Amino acid sequence: MRTNRMISGLALLLIWGAPAFAQDRIGEVSTTWRMMSPNDKVVVERYDDPKVENAACYISRAETGGWSGAMGFAEDPSRFSIACRAVGPLRFKDKIAQDEDGEVVFSEDTSFFFKELRVTRFLDTERNVLVYLVWSTRLIDGSPYNAISVVPIN
Hints:
It is a single chain. The protein has 154 residues and is mainly beta. It has helices at 2-16, 66-71; strands spanning 22-32, 40-48, 52-63, 80-92, 103-109, 115-124, 129-138, 146-152. It has one domain (20-152). Helices cover 14% and strands 51% of the residues. A hairpin with a 4-residue loop joins β6 (115-124) and β7 (129-138). The longest helix is centred in the first third of the chain and has 15 residues, at 2-16. One of its GO terms (cellular component) is cytosol.
């Protein structure tokens, strides 16, 4: 009985703590074959900006396989690519940050210990575009790997 309550509580925490940034896995390819455990992969995922209707970002990233990857203990490499597009007329649902720090619109753990993949949005008012930056964080030192994509605002 107590175990069921703990599991229910954990499930609710996971639902409440889930990011507002919608994510869908589009596909994956295996890069390393492993006989007795899951393969290493490159995955392609779609993220919809929660504040900009019809702005979609597609990210490809490496995902570590093996038993440690399957259990969530492996650290995924900080290698990724991003392509963002307007998939319809852009509509702003809320005010967009206009400062130099931008706004983190998505964050996902990529290791069990203190590493995240983040997507930050910037607004370039001079060129009238949204700039999306994908990058990685670490507890001790960040990663220099990053990629950007630009979406024109019509």
